[in-house]
Amino acid sequence: MPNVLPITNLQSNATEKAIRAALEGKWEEAIEFNLYLIKDEPGDITALNRLAKAYTEIGDIEKANNTYKKVLSLDKYNPIATKNLIRLKTKEKVKIQSSINPSPAIQANFLEEPGKTKSTQLVRLTDADNLANLHIGQSVMLEAKKRSVSVLLSDGTYIGTLPDDLSFRLGRLIRGGNKYETFVKGLPANHGVLIFIRETERSRRYKNTPSFPMTTHATYQADLRHTELREEPLDTRETGEDEDA
């Protein structure tokens, strides 16, 4: 008798493929896998939200609207469907560009300025479903905590954390009054998130301190001491979001 995967295994594989397709911008494949999932489980809200997202990305706004409305018929307070329906209705939707060829308008957000800008990969990432809803050029926020700097969506959804050395520096600068704007710059196929940070305002206390000095590790540490950016050693356990998040 031939080996046949149990239905639950097939569904699990389809879920993984649906998420991977979205992360890689393969929206037609994402639609196919999510349709497969809701065929057997019409009330799968997560799959329906992914499906609506995929419809939005290929420009099928009518199907996207209808799918989000289906979600709300099952869960009338669902935040993802509610938020995206508002975006579609008010025509504030930002078209997702591929990480290989973003539009000129999006590229303008990523202009490099020595000492004032930096691109970095996030660590301690959120779950794959939240990552699948990100897009190139999307504005995100920095939140300085005691031991790290978290990256959040405008609604407070946690995305990831800055690497420890960068958290060490920016956390103190942010608490000292510096301000920054941050965008999603890339979404690598390995479920990574690359962000772009730009200093927009330097506090009086750190007026002579570049946010992102071009230095070696040794001089970087010396620079931190010189500008009194002292902090106790960071907890480098990569176990998820900060304990005080």
TrEMBL record:
Keywords annotated in UniProt: TPR repeat
Keyword Mitochondrion belongs to the record: no
Biased composition annotated in UniProt, kind: Basic and acidic residues: 223-239
Intervals holding TPR repeats: 45-78
Listed Polar residues bias regions: 208-219
Organism: Candidatus Chisholmbacteria bacterium RIFCSPLOWO2_01_FULL_49_14
InterPro entries from the UniProt entry: TPR-like_helical_dom_sf, TPR_rpt
PROSITE patterns hit by this protein: TPR
UniProt KW Glycosyltransferase keyword: no
Taxonomic lineage: Bacteria, Candidatus Chisholmiibacteriota
Protein name: Uncharacterized protein
Residue runs in coiled coils: none
Region Disordered: start-end pairs: 207-245
